[in-house]
Specification:
499 residues; Helix Hairpins; Heat Shock Protein 90; 10 helices; rod-shaped; binds adenosine-5'-triphosphate; binds magnesium ion
């Protein structure tokens, strides 16, 4: 696209979807503008009304006083002006029926004809209907006329009041208000724009950062100013926390993939080695043939187990590992697992010391798997002739299940790590080298199963003496019934929509 077209498209987009800072600025400027306009209109109208009204009142009083005198027949008395019935600024004239001026207090005032000629067609709305307003050049005059009968003759009394100064003041006031409004609006626009930009600055940093964010650069964080605590710092902090979690999960994922590939490499190398051996010597030597086939099989079995475990953990991570929960008699499950264990671990002394009765709410397949993981470890890491013992005791609303052995034990510094994926205390020694085989995934699977059942695990171990796994398994409540667990649980549905 051409640069100007791009610019135009961008500008159109900006106009259609203005930035939040622009929206806030315009919104507040518009509100301020409305407030200013309303206040100015009220002030202007108030002043306008009060000036006209003031002039009207002065005219009314003057007219009233004059008509009182006229009623007393004093119009042509010599002392009519002595005690002036007119208020200051009111001009008075008397004309006879032919329009000739008989009496007046200001000869320089514009003539009656001139005033009448310039009378406004539409006087102000609120003005007294008995009066008119005439505009002569820059001058404005309030004008009223009354007919009277005096000494059998008809006369006309004319009253005038100049309101030019008031009008001028009003005009200037309106100008001042208008300019103040414009300046106020401009200041509101500038201040609003400046303030909203400052307030929204963290959001801009956030946007810039997310734009530049890539998987390889996940260690970046939004700078959060110290001592400030508002919605935006909260957003930035939460965003940083989310990054922290994502980074952790991502690193764990990478570690998982690299560990898994590493674990798979050894058996594949062994299989390749044996297949080479077989292709070279296997045909002639039946002994090598037997050894090769059984080793390849054993390595393949190991790989199969590893893949099964990896798949289990992957499903667990993706929350796709479904558990079929049901209520069952725990003692029966323990007895069954131990019966099978006795058959398998012939070289050890396997004992079930105590097996209390009671119900638990669980996925029986998963719980059996978890117990098998612990018992297989006991079997693997206990020398021949050693003891493997199990004890299930009711303690309040829990079963206290102990799975112990008199094996090699785990050093204190390794006790936390054994639950990590792929962690093995003696990882250098494989089965083929005289050690015990394993993937290092058993305990992580057991821990996941325990977490899903709200089971608390405690490991107690003495190096060279033995290991005990203590499980606190909640018993089933009265109302618990069968159900599924694991699919989408824990996933919050985000239904809120931005803007
Ligand atoms: P697998 O995935 O086949 O079970 P693994 O047994 O090596 O392999 P985990 O069950 O996760 O893996 O155990 C991790 C490590 O913890 C083991 O390699 C072992 O060193 C140590 N461990 C576990 N249980 C015991 C035990 N009862 N006695 C001594 N060491 C143990
Ligand atoms: Mg194990």
């Amino acid at each position: 696209m051409r640069p100007w077209k791009l610019w135009l498209a961008k500008a159109t987009n900006r106009l259609t979807y203005p930035r939040i800072s622009v929206k806030i600025t315009l919104f507040y400027a518009a509100i301020l503008c409305i407030v200013l306009l309303v206040t100015s209109a009220i002030t202007g109208a108030g002043v306008y009304f009060s000036f006209y009204h003031q002039a009207e009142i002065e005219m009314e009083i003057s007219m009233h006083n004059t008509l009182e005198r006229v009623a007393m027949g004093q119009l042509f008395d010599a002392d009519f002006w002595q005690d002036d019935p007119l208020l200051p600024g009111v001009v008075f004239r008397v004309t006879d029926i032919s329009g000739r001026v008989i009496l007046e207090n200001d000869a320089h005032y514009p003539s009656i004809e001139r005033v009448e000629r310039h009378l406004r067609a539409n006087p102000p709305l609120f003005a007294n209907p008995r009066m008119g307003v005439a505009d002569i050049r820059n001058m404005s005059i309030y004008y009223a006329k009354v007919q009277i009968l005096q000494q059998g003759q008809i006369y006309e009394l004319h009253f005038f009041k100049t309101i030019t100064a008031e009008k001028e003041f009003l005009r200037e006031l309106l100008w001042v208000l208008f300019i103040t409004n414009i300046i106020g609006f401009l200041i509101a626009l500038a201040a609003g724009f400046f303030v909203s930009r400052r307030i929204l600055n963290p959001i801009r940093i956030l946007t810039r950062l997310t734009r530049r964010m890539a998987v390889e650069r996940m260690n970046r964080r939004i700078p959060v100013p110290r001592g400030r605590q508002d919605e935006l710092t909260e957003l930035a902090e939460n965003f940083n926390r989310m990054l922290e979690r994502l980074q952790g999960a991502f690193q764990q994922q990478q570690q998982f993939v690299s560990d898994a590939s590493h674990e798979l490499r050894t058996p594949v190398t062994v299989i390749l080695g044996y297949s080479d051996l077989l292709s070279r010597w296997g045909r002639q030597d039946p002994e090598i043939l037997d050894e090769g086939i059984s080793s390849i099989r054993s390595e393949a079995e190991g790989m199969q187990q590893l893949i099964e475990k990896l798949l289990f953990l992957a499903r667990a991570d993706q929350k796709r590992q479904v558990l079929h929960m049901e209520r069952l008699e725990f003692s029966e499950l323990v007895a069954d697992v131990m019966k099978k264990m006795k058959l398998v671990a012939k070289e050890h002394e396997v004992e079930l010391l105590q097996n209390d009765e009671g119900n638990i709410y669980c996925d029986p397949v998963a719980i059996r798997q978890m117990m098998r993981i612990f018992l297989e470890n006991s079997q693997k890491y206990t020398p021949k002739g050693g003891r493997i013992y199990v004890l299930s005791r009711r303690e309040g609303a829990f079963f206290h299940l102990v799975l112990g052995d008199t094996g090699i034990g785990i050093a204190p510094e390794n006790q936390k790590k054994v639950f990590e994926r792929f962690y093995r205390v003696d990882s250098s020694r494989t089965k083929a080298e005289g050690g015990v085989g394993g993937t290092g995934l058993g305990l992580s699977i057991a821990r996941w199963i325990a977490e899903q059942h709200d089971i608390e695990i405690t490991l107690k171990s003495d190096l060279g003496k033995g290991t005990e796994i203590h499980l606190h398994i909640p018993m089933a409540g009265e109302k618990t019934s069968a159900g599924m667990r694991g699919n989408d649980e824990g996933d919050e549905k985000l239904e809120e929509v931005f803007f």
